[in-house]
Amino acid sequence: MSSSEWAQAALQAFDQVVQSSDGFRGRAGQRGMAEQVAQTFSSAQLGKLEDDSVAPVRAIAVIQAGTGVGKSLAYCAPAIAIALARNTRVLISTATVALQEQLVNKDLPALAAQLAQPFKFALAKGRGRYVCKLKLERLAGTGEAHDEDEADLFPEEAAAARPQHETQARVQFYAAMAHTLASGAWDGDRDSLDSPPEPEVWSPVAAEGATCTGKHCPAFAQCTYYDKRKELVGAQVIVANHDLLLSSIGARLLPELDNCLLVLDEAHHLPATALDQFACSMDLSRLNWIDRLASRSLRIGQLVQVQDIADIPRHASQLRQHLQDLARLVMDVYGAELRQPAPRWGGAQGRLPTRVRVPRGELPEALLEPLAQLSHHAEGFLECLRAISKALRTEMRDKPEEARRLSQLYAQIGMLAPRLEQAHATAQLLLQHAPDDPAPTYVPPAKWFTLEIDGDFIVVKAHASPILPGAALRRHLWSHVRGAVLTSATLTSCGQFDFFMHESGLHGDAAASTLEVASPFNYAAQGTLIAAETHADPKNAAAFSAEMVEALLNDLAQVEYGALVLFTSREQLRKAVDALPTVLRACVRVQTSLPRTQLLARHRERVADGQVSIIFGMQSFGEGLDLPGRLCESVFITKLPFAPPDDPVGEARAEWLRAVGRDPFSELVVPATAMRLAQWAGRAIRTEDDQAHIYCYDKRLTRTSYGQRLLAGLPPFTLVRRGVTG
Fold first, then answer.
1. Could you tell me which residues come within 8 angstroms of residue 369 by beta carbon, excluding any fewer than 6 positions away?
2. Full-model pTM
3. Which H or E run includes 182?
4. First to last CA, the chain
5. 723 three-state secondary structure
6. What would the pLDDT profile of 328-354 be if each residue is shown by its tens digit?
7. How many other β-carbons are positioned within 10 Å of the β-carbon of residue 595?
8. Strand locations in 540-585, DSSP E?
9. Domains, in order of start, for the chain
């Protein structure tokens, strides 16, 4: 078949699904999106080409599909139809595991029931979300663990010796988990537990790659992670998430990106995910892990007769020394700033880490030598670990009867090896500096140091991160992709795609096209945006918060069913909670009071019973909430959602933009805020029958030129201006 025939057949498949779905009403926008998806995926050249000298045809569509368009069906039906026709696979990547599960448990089964040609689908999650049976057995033993085993119960460096009862409690917890796994009552997936454990509890038993011996492991046949991987082999559709997609490039876990059809749903998260993925940090103060890793490596290296272990004591000693030197020098240079009280952005309780960023990414000369030595000895240490790893795998292959013991030895090293890898990566990025004659295209990474108090200890950490997500995505992702669709309800900013195209690394890519599919909702008739103009300047936090809270409480008194209040700081939220009159206290559910799922369940129960229920939430509640009808008849935006002012990556990026003659506020801050504001406002209208009010108490929305840009990026609600105090 030709590309046009593939596209036509895929669109026919979409039409057939729509026609055969009872009670489903086709939408022009949805079909337009399906047509764009079909054209994109049919034109991309996949796999190995007959003529290697000719560049393959790439096709990438960036599609903003407004709320209510039905984008899941619009991309799934044509993409799967084309994949089946071309004998390839569809890789769908979402922002979160929750969205993955919605696709796998709801959307894809419904589509499979309607699509003429059968297909299989599977969920792909990272190793770390599955339990390692071997590690669980070791840590859940008898409670008479060796010192090294006991240390692994707590992945963080303890500030002081842990009380014996904490160790016993942890062992008992793992023993109960092991029993549940052995009985078949649990499948080994962290997300399927009734109460998923905290990261510090889960980490020691997670099936991380550094501790896994794969097919050599004696528990391989009963491994949850590898069982799930087997499901991927026969699946035509694989549902992953952005973190897994970026972290597994080149690892052969997911389909090869040059030979599959890639869909990125909730694609507005992709740039932030990329920055998180490629950032790194290292602890300069808590260094006991180095001695533990050296001791284990020497002992295990001797057992498997590795010749290259003689250098381990020297590398470990020098690594520790240079980390200590670096910590001392950091305090010599930046100590005055790091010892200052931390700014309470967000009003968080307790002592926050203090932070100092390195201007222009130019480290003082005194820090360069210990960093270079640190990097050198970390690399030498890693080479020794690689030799031990190779020897262990060879022994497992040659002596299968010893596999259990050898796998446990492998895991003992693997528990600590990632810290060494992080130290090496962080040192490498910190050492990156502008050449003597820097090119105009050189972009320095963000570099910063933090100080925090952990018990009686002062902890100093070093951090580094790229500042342009687009550059990282071009290098690591788009260089491999042939055919892709990126979609979300919020890809435009201030009415334009430009910001997202730069952030995602697609600006200037000849293969990339854009399409905006309007929501079928009548926003002007269904929604009212009330711009409450305060007297106080929002930059005057105290005066503004007092005025805003008073106005908010007056408006909350009018709520009849469900409402959502979104705050930009914890201090703001706290003041509003403290000011609640008795009559409203029983109606308010605060984000921090319950786990998200429980809080939302309580909210739905109250509204179903005809009672008022109001959710007070921070930024995470501004996205991903689907509360149609009475569940959210009003959304209250207390302040424009600008990013926190102390974000070191944002600061470094703004500094670089100013250095090259560009305006960071107009180019970066306003577009990012516009996308965030559109997400927040998007919680209000979820169906064609919804009626809702959106309140914004920040007068900058209507009184500034950039506020007009923000308004241009919102749905066309009916705008009403109101003075707070009349």
1. none
2. 0.91
3. helix 164-182
4. 68
5. strand
6. 999 999 999 998 876 544 434 445 689
7. 10
8. 562-566
9. 3-120+234-275+470-517 (3.40.50.300), 130-215 (no CATH), 280-433+445-464 (no CATH), 523-723 (3.40.50.300)
